[in-house]
Specification:
By secondary structure, the protein is of the alpha/beta class. The chain contains 13 helices and 16 strands. Strands 1, 2, 3, 4, 5, 6, 7, 8, 9, 10, 11, 13, 15 and 16 form a 14-stranded mixed sheet that branches. The protein has a two-stranded antiparallel ribbon with strand order 12-14.
Length: 429
């Protein structure tokens, strides 16, 4: 992915965002640069006795305003709706209406997270099961109980469906793939999309990711194993890299990008956000010490820099994973120090989960959109709630106000709780 001949260059020409701080890139950017958080008290359903009652919800989202094939809404979970809407925004932003590109040369690479069924969807079958149980077997349920489940029920939960629906919406008949690697999915989808274009299999790709934790089952599950913020004041809930941070916040959202072969974009006069210089990936492996030090992330950063033919001193800012938990932020900071050396303490860092929380695959995509828009507008958004530096992190966190940007090269990273990591280096054009 090194910058070289134009035939091997890949650029971003469209951005679409659906997030807790704005639907559409204009609203998203205005709230981001103004420091307005999308974290508040959960309203989608009663949190009951769960210890964390804060969330970052996408409010006032009407899928009918953004999705063309409305008949498919009945088989789209909320995650899918958010993703398909963001893809349509990205295609519109890239000025690529249907028919303007050979459909055989347009593909899709999309990241997705875990999608749960709602209890209501299975309630009739569950009641029937309870009625027919005899303590040992469930005679007759296979013939009668299964009929209580809608035939297309499973389509809402399949992680490959966002990529399928995006392709149907835009008649994209080129390569189509799904990445399910939790938070690292968006950047890994970007990497694969770039590779598809580089090997000549497509002229343009729609890449992105979507996910939602605003679901009764997902929210309950997160409260069992995730370090969620326990405070009552949503204004200070998510505090990446701050010494007094106490956890992350469940959210939802999606972002999509149109990437193109540079020559293809230039030939049609497309707007260009940036060039993708390199995307690296890695994993911590089995050693607990590797996970604690973010080894996989360090390797990802090193690989992305090698592909880009750049050094750490060339970076203008880091768009951090910044989950807001104690162990994750420390591991991430250690990865920066390991991969970037002493420069890690001087590169400006922004952590956008402080605005919209943590939501699996989609969060990485929304964060990447933040970097692209920051480079377009020449301002780096501040990290919210950063008051007291953590001596175990030692990073140059942008806080209190946005930072005027003088360097158009960014490093965006994401890391899963199991150590799968990805890093992308992008350059403004």
């Amino acid at each position: 992915m090194k910058a070289g001949s134009d035939s091997h260059r890949v650029v971003v020409t469209g951005v679409g965002v659906v997030s807790p701080i704005g639907i559409g890139q204009e609203a998203f950017w205005q709230n981001l640069i103004a420091g307005r958080s999308g974290i508040d008290h959960l309203t989608a359903f009663p949190p009951g006795g769960l210890p964390s009652k804060l969330a970052a919800e996408v409010r006032d989202f009407d899928p009918l305003e953004h999705i063309y094939h409305r008949k498919f809404l009945k088989v789209m979970s909320r995650d899918i709706q958010l993703g398909v809407a963001s893809a349509s925004m990205a295609m519109k932003d890239a000025a690529l209406p249907q028919g303007s590109i050979d459909p055989e040369r347009l593909g899709v690479e999309f990241g997705a997270g875990h999608m749960s069924a709602t209890p209501e969807e299975l309630s009739d079958a569950a009641r029937h099961l309870q009625q027919t149980a005899d303590g040992i077997s469930f005679k007759g349920w296979a013939e009668e109980g299964l009929g209580q489940i809608a035939p297309l029920w499973l389509l809402k939960q399949l992680p490959n469906m966002p990529a399928c629906h995006v392709a149907i919406e835009h008649d994209a008949r080129g390569p189509n793939n799904t990445i399910t690697s939790c938070e690292s999915s968006a950047l890994l989808a970007l990497a694969e999309g770039v590779r598809v274009i580089e090997r000549g299999a497509a002229d343009a790709m729609i890449v992105g990711a979507c996910s939602s934790y605003i679901h009764p089952l997902e929210f309950a599950r997160l409260n069992l194993y995730e370090n969620l913020a326990r405070g009552d004041d949503p204004r200070f809930a998510c505090r990446p890299f701050d010494r007094d941070r106490d956890g992350t916040v469940a959210g939802e959202g999606a972002a999509s990008f149109v990437i193109e072969r540079y020559e293809h974009a230039i030939s049609r006069g497309a707007p260009i956000y940036c060039e993708v210089l390199g995307v690296g990936a890695g994993c911590d492996g089995s050693d607990a010490a590797n996970r604690a030090s973010g080894l996989g992330l360090a390797r990802s950063i090193e690989a992305a820099l090698r592909q880009s033919d750049l050094t750490p001193r060339d970076l203008g800012h880091i768009n951090a994973h910044g989950k807001g938990t104690r162990k994750d932020d420390i591991a991430e900071a250690q990865a920066y120090h390991r991969a970037l050396g002493l420069v890690a303490e001087s590169i400006p860092v922004t952590a956008l989960k402080s605005y919209f929380g943590h939501f699996d695959a989609g969060a990485g995509a929304v964060e990447l959109a933040g970097s692209l828009l920051a480079m377009r507008h020449g301002q780096l958004p501040m990290t919210l709630n950063y008051r007291t530096p953590d001596p175990l992190c030692r990073l140059n966190i942008v806080h209190d106000e946005p930072l005027a940007m003088t360097n158009g090269i960014a490093l965006s990273v994401n890391r899963t709780r199991m150590g799968q990591s990805a890093a992308a280096v992008i350059r403004a054009i």
